[in-house]
Amino acid sequence: MPVLQPDESPVMLSALQHYLFCPRQCALIHVEGVWSENFLTAAGRQLHERVDRRGGETRRDVHLATALRLTSQRLGLTGVADMVEFHRQETSQDESGRIVAARLSGRSGYWRPFPVEYKRGAPKSHRADEVQLCAQALCLEEMLGVTIAAGALFYGETRRRTDVAFDSELRTLTEDVAGKVHALVRAGVTPPPVLTKGCRACSLVDVCRPGDVGGRESARRWINNQIDEACR
C-alpha cells in the first residue's frame, strides 16, 4: 500500500493516467517537470476549462460541483475533479446498509457523490481513464466517509457518457498504479524510450524522441552524439 514518506509530497491524480499510458511520459512530467502542448492537449485543456467555468449549480435533487479539490492521505494523491454530481437522498445508506451519501453544508438530506471525468477523445482500449476516475472516487470516499459504486467518463468525440463501475478489480489496479507512480517519483529515474503507436499523439514526442533513441544503449549513443556535435 503506497504511503507517503515524511519528506514526500502527494502525486497528482493525472500521474496515474500518464503512467498507464507511458511510464516514461509520467516521469518526464512528474519527475523532470517537462511539459509541451499540442493540438490534442490544447483541445483537452479547453474542454476542462469549459466544465470548470460552469461553477456549482443545483438542479432539483442533483448538485453539480466543478473543479473540486481532492486528496487522499492513504494513497498520497491530490488533484481536482472535473465534476462531481451529488444526488440527494433521504438516508445515508443504500439497500445493503453501506454508507453511500454524506451531508453537504447548507443543504438538507444526504448527498451521494458520482464523479464525472471529461476527456477530449473517444473511449480507449486501455484502462488509464478508468483508473484516473477511480482514483478520484477513492479520494472522495476517504474525504466523505462513503462508498462510491460508480462514476462516468464523458468523451468529447462521441458526446456520450461511459459508466464505470468501481469494482474490486479496478480498485486494486488503481491502488497498484498509485504505488508504482510513488516508486517512480521516489527513484527519480526516467525510464528509457520505447517507440509505440501511441507516441504519435503524445505532446512530448519531440522531447522524448522515441524514434531516435530506443533503449539504454541507443540513448547513450544519442547523448554521446549530442556532445560530439557540440564540441565540433
Descriptive keywords:
7 helices, Lambda Exonuclease, Chain A, 38% helix, 2 domains, 7-stranded mixed beta sheet
Provide the low-confidence segments as ranges: 37-49, 214-219
Strand content: 15-25%
Q: Report the CATH C-level class of the largest domain.
A: Alpha Beta
The major beta sheet can be summarized as: 7 strands, mixed
Share of helical residues: 25-40%
Number of domains: 2
Based on DSSP secondary structure assignment, what is the total number of beta strands?
7
Order of helices and strands: EHHHEEEEHEEHHH
User: What is the CA-CA span between the terminal residues?
Assistant: 51 Å
Q: Could you say what the CATH topology of the largest domain is called?
A: Lambda Exonuclease, Chain A
User: For the residues shown, what is the average pLDDT?
Assistant: 83
Number of helices: 7
The Rg value, from CA coordinates, equals: 20 Å
Structural class by secondary-structure content: alpha/beta
Give the overall shape, derived from the CA principal axes.
globular
CATH architecture of the largest domain: Alpha-Beta Complex
Give an overview in words.
With 232 residues, the chain is of the alpha/beta class. The chain folds into 2 domains: 11-190, Lambda Exonuclease, Chain A; 192-232, no CATH class. It has 7 helices and 7 strands, in the order E-H-H-H-E-E-E-E-H-E-E-H-H-H. Strands 1, 2, 3, 4, 5, 6 and 7 form a 7-stranded mixed beta sheet that branches. Helix 1 (14-21) crosses helix 5 (168-187). The longest helix is centred in the last third of the chain and has 20 residues, at 168-187. It starts with 10 loop residues before the first strand and ends with a helix. The model is unreliable at 37-49 and 214-219 (pLDDT under 50).
